[in-house]
Amino acid sequence: MSMIYKTLFEVKLLHELYLTEADGVSIFENVDQPGRMDFLLKQYTEGTESINKDLLFEFPASMREEYESYNLKLLPAYSGCKVATRVNKKILSNRETAKQT
Fold first, then answer.
1. How is residue 2 annotated by DSSP?
2. Model's pTM, two decimal places?
3. Are 29 and 17 contacting, i.e. CB atoms less than 8 angstroms apart?
4. Which of 8, 11, 72, 88 has CA atoms 20 to 30 A from the CA of 59?
């Protein structure tokens, strides 16, 4: 059986140094969340380096074993990271698929 992980939350670090285009347009000129997400998607698809080139996201060594016992994984994401947890696939009586922790 394959393992399935579901994202609990995502952390994005937005800094103008990494998120300003050559013409001076910055992510912060978008006042709405969809506009900022579109900006990030464009940067990602164009292969623009993100803050992850200079930062490494890890669980603290003192907490790593405990977090692993909770089946938590830290995954790199463009301009930040995601924390995911392992879930189990369950087929319901109406044949829908559910995921439970």
1. -
2. 0.73
3. no
4. 88
Distance CA 101, CA 87 (A): 4
**DSSP assignment letter at 71:** T
- DSSP H helical segments within the chain, as ranges? 33-45, 61-69
**Domain total of the chain:** 1
The answer for residues whose C-beta is within 8 angstroms of residue 13's C-beta and 6 or more apart is 51, 55, 79, 80
Q: Residue 75 is encoded by which pair of tokens?
A: 């995954």
Q: Please, which residues bridge with residue 12 across strands?
A: 80
Boundaries of domain holding 55? 4-100
